Amino acid sequence: MGFSTTAIHAGNEPDPATGAVSVPIYQTSTYAQEGLGKHKGYEYARTQNPTRTALEKNIAALEGARFGFAFASGMSAIDASLKLVKGGDHVILGDNTYGGTFRLFNRILKDYSVEFDLADTSDLANLEKFFKPNTKLVFVETPTNPVMTVTDLAAVSEMAHARGAKVICDNTFMSPYFQRPIEHGVDIVVHSTTKYLNGHSDSIGGFVALNNEEDAEWIRFVQNSVGAVLSPMDSFLVLRGTKTLAVRMEAHDKNGRQVAAFLQEHPKVEKVYYPGLASHPQHELAKRQQSGFGGMVSFETGSLENAKKVLESVKLCTLGESLGGVESLISHPATMTHAAVPDETRAKLGITDGLVRISVGIEDVEDILEDLDQALK
Ligand SMILES: *Cc1c(COP(=O)(O)O)cnc(C)c1O
């Protein structure tokens, strides 16, 4: 089955009770049992909910995974996936992951004796040096936010597996439409469904997809024990979102390429970060690993004053955090999404005061370009 067919049909069987074509929002906390130990597979809604089950089947299928679990946020999904490590284990964490992922390691997991090192996972020779006998996990994000560094998932998976470690990939930026990490050897995929999978900026959610049965049983156990489950309403929204994932991602990609090309030629722009540009240092790898480049574009305006002028002059693009919705959002990583990153690390990663990030939406591209042009002027 093709991707769009899977997106529309996986998990979306007509409702057995009524034939409803759209999976109902099963807004219930519990289920009537016919007798002691006799029930229809549903006992209590933290443990199982049919709307959530439909979504779990749907996104697992899109990622090419046997198992999938939906969580209340991207962060709770990431937290659940990290419960595969125990105190005393060592994790290699990409040095430019989502800020919340870094915070989880740096402020919480470290007090549970989980050791971690930050590494540039795009540099394989560098990455290799970080493995220790107790390294259990490599956590990768590709492309990274906001400077769009691409990591070779197949090479990192091979390196980690040879050393007895597993690989988790945060696939939020590409979505399974453009990148399916499991096909490249990655063990576990995590998502913030808040972004492209839901796609309409009206729900917070997260997802874990994987193939290994033993690990899946543990994630299921964590999901039920900790209880950070996605609500029936949010499950419904994300399930509705994924039906149009293919068409939305195509539109984000088309607009993203045009915005990147426009910015690259613009006299007020010093540098553009977009893996779809031939000038991107890992353009070839991105072409091989991804089937598109998506809608995330960052650019250097040269100074905080310039960035501020652009961010406060846009009319169509909305100034705000988050990404992946149908509407274009513009943000200032240094003071918004990456404010918690130490100055020195930010400088090393290229997250300057003049850097601006756009989540290119699916409006008419002429309107987006016109808005950016007037703001830059
Ligand atoms: C937003 C985001 C997260 C966190 O997801 P929430 O749904 O906000 O908890 C994790 N990783 C990436 C790449 C993100 O963009």
Total domains: 2
Structural class: alpha/beta
**So how many helices?**
14
Strand order, sheet with most strands: 1-7-6-5-4-2-3
Q: CA-to-CA gap between the ends?
A: 48 Å
Task: List each distinct ligand once.
Answer: pyridoxal-5'-phosphate
Poorly predicted parts = none
Reported by name, the CATH topology of the largest domain is Aspartate Aminotransferase, domain 2
Shape: globular
Nearest-angstrom radius of gyration? 21 Å
Q: What is the number of beta strands?
A: 12
Walk me through the topology.
Blueprint: H1 3-9, H2 50-63, E1 67-71, H3 74-82, E2 90-94, H4 99-108, E3 115-119, H5 124-128, E4 135-141, H6 153-162, E5 166-170, H7 175-178, E6 188-192, E7 206-210, H8 213-226, H9 232-243, H10 245-265, E8 271-273, H11 283-289, E9 296-300, H12 304-313, E10 318-319, E11 329-331, H13 343-349, E12 355-359, H14 365-376
Parallel strand pairs: 2-3, 2-4, 4-5, 5-6, 10-11
Antiparallel strand pairs: 1-7, 6-7, 8-9, 9-12, 11-12
Helix pairs in contact: 1-2, 2-9, 12-14
The protein binds pyridoxal-5'-phosphate.
In a nutshell, what does this entry contain?
By secondary structure, the protein is an alpha/beta fold. The chain has two domains: 3-243, Aspartate Aminotransferase, domain 2, CATH 3.40.640; 245-376, Alpha-Beta Complex (Aspartate Aminotransferase, domain 1).
Quickly list its features:
Aspartate Aminotransferase, domain 2, single chain, 377 residues, 5-stranded mixed beta sheet, alpha/beta, Aspartate Aminotransferase, domain 1
